[in-house]
Design a protein that fits this description.
It is an enzyme of class 1 (oxidoreductase). This is Protocatechuate 3,4-dioxygenase subunit beta. One of its GO terms (molecular function) is protocatechuate 3,4-dioxygenase activity. Helices cover 10% and strands 24% of the residues. With 221 residues, it is mostly beta strands. Strands 1, 4, 9, 10 and 11 form a five-stranded mixed beta sheet that branches. A four-stranded antiparallel beta sheet has the order 3-2-7-8. The mean pLDDT is 90.
């Protein structure tokens, strides 16, 4: 099984939100919903959407990185024109929203959200800051590994997949119930990016490659 189960007791919040009964499939197809749903256009995206380091008056603090890869279907074909969104903590491990009360500094020059459309080869590319680990209260001395949240849209909000990308060699993997909720190690490794020297730009930013394969990359429930 590639995807984590809805109920993972080690990840405490799933106990409260996991469905207690089998899903009842609706009789109506999704077409009627999707026809009334938003559709994204190229004109709504700009350079500042994909470069999270230039969205404010000053530069954010932390290690600048480039994250790129391809969105592929199950047959390995590129998914063109897909909207890819990212959100993440800052270099100190804090999100820029009121619900995050972790006593780490906020960065006034880093919001931590971006988006882009995949190109003709299914490729996305973001410039950002490497996020920090942060405590999350799930269990004793609980810390989340550094990660970036990804979502991939189809043509409407009803066609959305959400996942997370991690960084290689993180010592927190073994202690993280979210990462460990994926039963097979080979499937967990599909969420770990790889350092890439060809993506790295001299004296400017380290580069990481990570592909999203629909139907194979583990997705969140």
């Amino acid at each position: 099984m590639t995807h984590p189960p809805y109920l993972s007791p080690g990840y405490k919040s799933t106990v409260l939100r996991a469905p207690g009964q089998e899903l009842i499939m609706p009789k109506l197809g999704p077409d009627s919903v999707e026809l009334a749903s938003p559709v994204f256009g190229h004109q709504e995206l700009g350079r500042k959407d994909e470069d999270l380091t230039v969205q404010h008056a000053g530069e954010p603090l932390g290690e600048r990185i480039i994250v790129t890869g391809r969105v592929l279907d199950g047959a390995g074909r590129p998914v063109r024109g897909a909207l890819v969104e990212v959100w993440q903590a800052n270099a100190a491990g804090r999100y820029g929203h009121l619900g995050d009360i972790h006593p780490a500094p906020l960065d006034p020059n880093f919001t931590g959200a971006g988006r882009c459309l995949t190109d003709g080869d299914g490729r996305y590319r973001f410039v950002t800051i490497k996020p920090g680990a942060y405590p999350w209260g799930n269990h004793h001395n609980a810390w989340r590994p550094a990660h970036i949240h990804f979502s991939v849209f189809g043509t409407a909000f009803t066609q959305r997949l959400v996942t997370q990308m991690y960084f290689p060699g993180d010592p927190l993997f073994a202690y993280d119930p979210i990462f460990q909720s994926i039963p097979e190690e080979k499937d967990r490794e599909k969420l770990v990016s790889r350092f890439d020297m060809d993506t790295t730009e001299p004296e400017w930013a380290l580069g990481y490659q990570w592909d999203i394969v629909l139907g194979d990359t583990p997705m969140e429930a």
